[in-house]
Amino acid sequence: MERISLCTANLELIPPTPEDEDAVFAACQDPETQNWVPIPSPYLREHAHESVTTHSITTWEEDTEYTWTIRADGTLAGIVGLYRVANGSADLGFWMVPDFRGKGLLTEACNAVIEFAFSKAPQGLGIVRLGWNAYAGNFGSARVAQKLGFHFEGTARLGSALRGELRDDWGASLLASDERSESHWPILA
After folding, report:
1. In whole angstroms, what is the distance from residue 59 CA to residue 41 CA?
2. pLDDT tens sequence across 116-164
3. With contact defined as beta carbons under 8 Å apart, do 69 and 11 qualify?
4. Beta bridge mates, 79
5. Element holding 54 (H helix, E strand)
6. Residue 1 belongs to a domain
7. Are 98 and 111 in contact (CB under 8 A)?
8. Which residues neighbour 41 within 8 Å (Cβ) at sequence distance 6 or greater?
9. What's the total number of domains in the chain?
10. In-domain check, residue 183
């Protein structure tokens, strides 16, 4: 698929470019990001370079991942993407730069990506199921997924690994046919 940008009332969602390398590198130095996002640690400049050049371009071309930078007033505020795209499903993943957390921008960005995912071609991908996963304890990510209308499905005990360490993994899903209203999540009660 050709790389496309998305817009919301307050944000631009633009596929990564080489010009994003410095901002991505700086953002990925955040200890909270490294704790919750499966990125290399230490996060080196070469990781940022690969992420915004070869990896991003190749995955769009192969229709396996679609990643966007989240830009607020032209500044990198985070990353949002659709991962493991296959057979009518994908996983939604995201992270925010610390200065932009807690402002509702991530929910706004994710809603635009969800609309793209569920819209029929050529406006979107025609996905029927979106998954969401986070390491257990990532309440910020869980709250965003809940606001987006995802339905909590449970905890996979030691179901994921981060840098060789097994962790419990929370999971949720959103179907194209679902109402997008908050549902009860026992982990957020």
Report:
1. 22
2. 999 998 899 999 999 999 999 999 999 999 999 999 999 999 999 999 9
3. no
4. 69, 95
5. none
6. no
7. no
8. 34, 163
9. 1
10. yes
Range of the domain at 72: 6-188
pLDDT band for position 106 (cuts 50, 70, 90): very high
59-80 burial string, b = 16+ CB within 10 Å, else e? Answer: bbeeeebbbbbbbbeeebbbbb
Q: Which residues contact 75 (CB under 8 A, 6 or more apart)?
A: 23
Residues near 90 by Cβ (< 8 Å), separated by ≥ 6? 82, 83, 84, 117, 125, 127, 129, 130, 131
Q: What CATH number should be reported for the domain holding residue 116?
A: 3.40.630.30
Beta strand 12-14 with 6-7: parallel, antiparallel or unpaired? Answer: antiparallel
Residue 31 lies in a domain: yes
Neighbours of 29 (CB within 10 A): 11
Residue 135, amino acid: Y
| pLDDT tens digits, one per residue of 35-82 | 999 999 999 999 999 999 989 899 999 999 999 999 999 999 999 999
Amino acid letter for position 167: R
